[in-house]
Amino acid sequence: MPELPEVETVRSELAPWLPKKKVAAIRILHPRATRRNTGPSLRSAKNPIIGGEINSVNRRGKFIWLTFDRPYALIIHLGMSGQVLLPKSPAALSPHLRARIEFTNGKRELHFIDQRTFGYLALEELVEDPFASAEFDGQIPRSITHIAPDLLEVLNGKVLARSHKELNAMIRSRKSEIKRVLLNQEVVSGVGNIYADEGLWSAKIHPETRAHHLTEREVDRLLNALATIMARAIEAGGTSIDEQYKRVNGESGYFDVELDAYGRDGEPCSRCGTLIQRLRFMNRSSHLCPKCQKKG
DNA sequence: TCGAGTGTTATCCC
DNA sequence: GGGGATAACACTCG
């Protein structure tokens, strides 16, 4: 499911449920479900969050993490196909269920489902947030300290260590294509292939334009377009956990937002009517209007 | 049968 | 060392 708006939808759906819940057990059902764990093992029945009470549900970019009444965080990364569900009944277990968390108080379990297993859970120490966000009590999990603040954090002025203007300049200091820069989570996080295409279409910028050839104005237009599209997607993403549970896989419910470029190759551009093109790019696809988005 | 798919990162190379 | 490019991870669907 996962670019920033989809991950934020998951976070916001978990946020009313999880605080005050106490972890009774964590069952890892697939070897890759914890593979990037750099902290204590989640598989151990004595791991430090067993018995812990959840405090908060946080997100930066495409990463979610839970904090506890102890100095560890549980990272949830959805990868390409991950879902988090709180099923009402265990009857319809997904064949792609990779992990489940049981709570001492409350009948519902948390299920982590992931067809392609690019997602994972990880238990991590909390360290000081290098970007000094006004959120998260100044702490983030150790293994995501290299992930840049996400676009909404920057544009809302929540991070002290990176202003909108600094992000703009950082983007324009890069020599590679603008779409590569947008997808680099160490520059700005949360943007993936779909929203990159949508933002570039909206700002009328060709994805292969070298970032250092863009003007400050153009980059501003791009960042504002991305923020607008993502905010709209978050608003549209208000599907409930229960509804998601009825869906077959992580792709369902993902394209509720009206898209102008992504996946629309061969269809007319909604601005000028020229047919949307698809280009091969970084082992994936770029979608663009060849008339609106001239290569710069 | 083959290619393509929403993400991240290890590992090359320059 | 750093930045950049590429491959690899795994599974399903059209």
What's the name of the CATH homologous superfamily of the largest domain? MutM-like, N-terminal
Number of domains: 2
CATH domain fold name of the largest domain: N-terminal domain of MutM-like DNA repair proteins
Q: From the alpha carbons, calculate the radius of gyration and give it in angstroms.
A: 20 Å
Q: What's the pLDDT, averaged over the residues?
A: 88
Class inferred from helices and paired strands: alpha+beta
Would you list the SSEs in sequence order as H and E?
HEEEEEEEEEHHHHHHEE
Question: Which architecture of the largest domain per CATH?
Answer: Alpha-Beta Barrel
The geometry reads as globular
**Strand tally, please?**
11
Q: Which strand-content bin applies to the residues?
A: 15-25%
**Level-1 CATH class name of the largest domain:** Alpha Beta
How many strands, what sense, and barrel or not for the largest sheet?
5 strands, antiparallel
The DSSP helix count reads 7
Share of residues in helices: 10-25%
Main-sheet strand order equals 2-3-4-8-9
Low-confidence stretches: 243-255
Question: End-to-end span in angstroms?
Answer: 32 Å
